[in-house]
Amino acid sequence: MSIYERIESLIKSKAMTKKEFCKELGISTGNLGDWKRGKSSPGTNKLIDIAAYFDVSLDWLMTGREREAVQVHEEREAYAADEPDWIRLSSRLTEREKAFIQEYLEFTEYRRKLKRMGGK
């Protein structure tokens, strides 16, 4: 199932029209048609908006799969006290992984703002 097909199924699940969906999220019907035909894909910010609107994960919207919860049990090694773990770990990431984490952090902040404003 493509991103467009997942978006279409979400629209149907809310019993709304594609026109209503486009109006709600500020998407032109032409762009939606381009997504359907595979001429273009929604940008990152639009995917974040769509995921937040339908209260689904960005992972599911992009891939059709939820990220599996992984339980990690490990003994903590002795690290330099002045270097938090996340800094040490982030230095090992690829640029693509860093970009994904950045998008996720922005998505999380966006959802927090929505909740504070009385949204989902």
Automatic annotation (TrEMBL):
Full protein name: Helix-turn-helix transcriptional regulator
Cross-referenced Pfam families: HTH_3 (PF01381)
Domain HTH cro/C1-type, chain residue ranges per copy: 7-61
Gene Ontology molecular-function annotations: DNA binding
CDD domains listed in its UniProt record: HTH_XRE
InterPro entries: Cro/C1-type_HTH, Lambda_DNA-bd_dom_sf
